[in-house]
Each structure stands twice: as C-alpha cells, then as structure tokens.
Amino acid sequence: MARLLLIEDDPAIRTTLLRALRERGHAVAAAAAAMEGLQTALAERPDLIVLDLGLPDLDGRELLRMLRAVSRIPVIVATARDEESEMVRLLDAGADDYVVKPFTAAQLDARIRAVLRRDGTGLSETAPAIEVGGLRIDQAARTVTLDGTTVELTPREFDLLHHLALRAGQVVTKRELLSEVWQVPYGGADKTVDVHLSWLRRKLGETAQEPRYLHTVRGVGVKLSEPA
Ligand code: CA
C-alpha cells in the first residue's frame, strides 16, 4: 500500500481514479487544483503524487517546479501532450514518470509501483554496498559517500550513479541509461542523460573536462571507473 495524492481537476477522472486506486489497496487523497495540491502535498507528505498537467489555477509544470524546489516526493505526470519534447522537459523538470491520457487505472497503478520500487523499496535490505575507489554506494540505504563524506543526491541521480556502479569499468550507452534509469524509449532524448550527468559530476566535484570517476566516451556513452 502506498499513500498517494491525486491532483486532478476533472471530477469524473478524479472520482474514477480515486476509487480504482483505493480498490488496488492504496490510501489516496485528492486535490482539484494546483495550490490545494501543493498544500496537501506539503502537509501530508504522500509517498507519490499523480499530477494532471492541465489544472485551472496553475500549469501542472509550474506546480512540478514548485514541488521540486521543496520536496523529492516522486511525481507521475498525467499528460494529454505526448510529444517527446514535452516529455523530456517534464522529466528534466523532475517528473519521475508520465502517463498519457487516456490511461487505465491498471496502467497507472503499474507505473506507481515501478516508481516506488525504484524510489527505494525495490532493493533488498541486504544488498551489499558497491565501492569504486573512494565512492561507496549503499544500495539498501540509497546513500552515497565519497572519501567518507556524504553526497546528497536526488532519487534520479542516485539511480543513475547506481546503474553505472553496477557496471563499473564498462561503457554504458545513453540508450541503456534512458531505458533502464528513465524507462523511456530512446529517440534523441539523450540530452536528459547529459543534464543529469553534469549534475552528478558537480556533486562528485569533477567536470567533464577533468573527470575522475565519470568518463564520457564520445559517441558511445559513459563509464564509471576508479580514478587513475
Ligand atoms: Ca485537467
């Protein structure tokens, strides 16, 4: 069971989803407008938010940005706009996944479970830490230290680093990262990967020009390896 917040202004969709998600065992709160949703999110701290993009008082993307400024609660965006450019912008703005309308409650529930698994509950509590040089990735606690100092990562940054660490020493393609970490099909959206890699580099105290752990292999992908 997860504690969900559904932000959706269409009463018919809201009622249907509320009932369907509750029938699937979730505890669901609902808000019919963006500001009400933001207040509920901050007060209730749900496990996950399902956010409709077309809201009466504020664009859903704007709400997503406001939410991300103060919270890392996973967000699944419900959108009628299925263009890839829009999807990439949403993922870059901090959405964890998206569903394109019309979608079924079963589809949404599958996405919710996948995001929550990715967000922490999917890894075994006994999974060993991965060490690459001075980098230590605790898979169970989802924490990272570099030379003994904690590195604060967003869930997505953690997933990216974790995926690279599982293949340390090997070049991982952006296509693989998009499908495994973002779970979206490839198609020119690799800028998303570049952006997150640059944030990760900054947090690890390195740059693409002077890499220590994260090495770009031009035209192929990226490799995590111990500093020489
Ligand atoms: Ca709407």
Automatic annotation (TrEMBL):
GO cellular component, one term: protein-DNA complex
Xref: PROSITE patterns: OMPR_PHOB, RESPONSE_REGULATORY
Ranges annotated as DNA-binding: 127-226
InterPro entries recorded: CheY-like_superfamily, OmpR/PhoB-type_DNA-bd, Sig_transdc_resp-reg_receiver, WalR-like, WH-like_DNA-bd_sf
Annotated GO biological process: regulation of DNA-templated transcription
Domain Response regulatory intervals: 3-116
Modification 4-aspartylphosphate occurs at: 52
Domain OmpR/PhoB-type: 127-226
Keywords from the UniProt entry: DNA-binding, Phosphoprotein, Transcription, Transcription regulation, Two-component regulatory system
GO MF annotation list: phosphorelay response regulator activity; transcription cis-regulatory region binding
Protein name as it appears in the record: DNA-binding response OmpR family regulator
The species this protein was found in: Actinoplanes italicus
